[in-house]
Amino acid sequence: MKKLPVVLITGGAGYIGSHAVQEARKNGFDPVSYDNLSLGHAWAVQGSPLVKGELADRKKLSAAFKKFKPAAVMHFASHTSVGESVANPQKYYQDNLTNAMTLFSVMLERKVRYFILSSTAATYGDPVEVPIPETHPQAPINPYGDSKLMLEKILAWYDKAYGLRSTFLRYFNAAGADASGKIGEVHEPETHLIPLVLDAAMGRRKEITVFGQDYPTADGTCIRDYIHVTDLAGAHFLALKRMMEKDKSDFFNLGTGKGFSVKEVITKAEEVTGMKVPVKMGARRAGDPPELVARSSKAMETLGWQPRHSSLENILRTAWAWHQGYFGKIKTSRQPAARSRQARTRH
Ligand SMILES: NC(=O)c1ccc[n+]([C@@H]2O[C@H](COP(=O)([O-])OP(=O)(O)OC[C@H]3O[C@@H](n4cnc5c(N)ncnc54)[C@H](O)[C@@H]3O)[C@@H](O)[C@H]2O)c1
């Protein structure tokens, strides 16, 4: 049997990384995860090799490259909380920037020339144009987004100097779970809207706080572009194959081009789960732009990518199936939403 090229996936035991691991074989690659399990879970790599290692541990990283001989690297391992990055920038520059520099130096040493970066809409800062195209000015307003933009800049120079090709994938809001129900989102602490809403629906938390209802949007709450994690993972392999074929660096937004407000997400979640989601109104949070929606036509036209799994309903349905399976049965204390009972029978 022909040996598949190996892709080394840092953060392969995390939320998006584990979905990339899942997609790898379907796309003709053998995945090997490198993860310190600080935030990830060994079960999430689903039977593929996992090296439990710290990115800062150059010796261990180098040994993993020597052993598995990857043809390419997908780099998911980083800290991801905007709020935490503002409170503790040292952690973000240390882990997101310095550790990535170690990874690049091992790649150069081992002559691995293809790299996919988990970048983010946070590199754009406050949008001056929505939907946001890839050519939008990049002016991050927090250390998290800034650390990712710095990596993009460093990699552009590495391309010129060393021929290290990279693709920056600027995700909008990753959400949903693999249809198998075997992997999904588990962050501790959780900061993302959809799992928090589902927690409230399940009675795992008392309520969901909506931060700000006076934004210049139709219902006053923030609008975000939710992209299903399976679509996101698939895009990595389309981008990797194209980069290897053309031997050229590139960058793409990954979103659906359609935004939903916080209130719309909550209403849809009640419909899909059939449960009431208790809501508390809170003040705006600093650094939350009113609307973040991607223009993703470049990925669609260049990579032939389509966000097939990303209807809000499918995102919520798969996330709910995962959430219930992982976090246990619905508590009886939470009452089904009256108007949602009927909707539930449709699914
Ligand atoms: N989740 C989103 O909506 C979103 C949006 C934009 C960009 N991103 C980016 O996508 C990537 C993955 O996000 P996620 O939500 O899957 O995060 P996650 O926390 O679920 O996964 C990150 C993984 O990296 C590992 N890790 C962290 N630091 C490490 C280190 N120093 N050495 C080895 N392993 C380490 C963790 O254990 C974890 O398994 C991140 O780079 C993030 O910035 C995520």
Summarize the helices and strands and which ones pair or pack:
Blueprint: E1 6-10, H1 15-24, E2 30-35, E3 50-52, H2 58-68, E4 72-75, H3 82-87, H4 89-109, E5 114-120, H5 143-162, E6 165-171, E7 173-175, H6 193-202, E8 208-211, E9 223-224, E10 226-228, H7 229-246, E11 250-254, E12 260-261, H8 262-273, E13 279-282, E14 291-292, H9 297-303, H10 312-327, H11 340-345
Polypeptide structure, described:
Helix 1 (15-24) packs across helix 7 and helix 8 crosses helix 10. The model is unreliable at 338-347 (pLDDT under 50). Helix 5 links the parallel strand 5 and strand 6 (165-171). This protein is an alpha/beta fold and 347 residues long. A seven-stranded parallel β-sheet has the order 3-2-1-4-5-6-11, sandwiched between helices. The chain has helices spanning 15-24, 58-68, 82-87, 89-109, 143-162, 193-202, 229-246, 262-273, 297-303, 312-327, 340-345; strands at residues 6-10, 30-35, 50-52, 72-75, 114-120, 165-171, 173-175, 208-211, 223-224, 226-228, 250-254, 260-261, 279-282, 291-292. It folds into two domains: 6-175 and 228-254, NAD(P)-binding Rossmann-like Domain (Rossmann fold, 3-Layer(aba) Sandwich), CATH 3.40.50; 193-224 and 257-345, Alpha-Beta Complex (UDP-galactose 4-epimerase, domain 1), CATH 3.90.25.10. It contains eleven helices and 14 strands. Residues 11, 13-17, 35-40, 54-55, 76-78, 80, 95, 99, 118, 120, 171, 173-174, 187 line the site of nicotinamide-adenine-dinucleotide (NAD).
Structural features:
single chain, 347 residues, alpha/beta, Rossmann fold, UDP-galactose 4-epimerase, domain 1, 2 domains, 7-stranded parallel beta sheet, 3-stranded mixed beta sheet, 11 helices, 39% helix, disordered C terminus, binds nicotinamide-adenine-dinucleotide
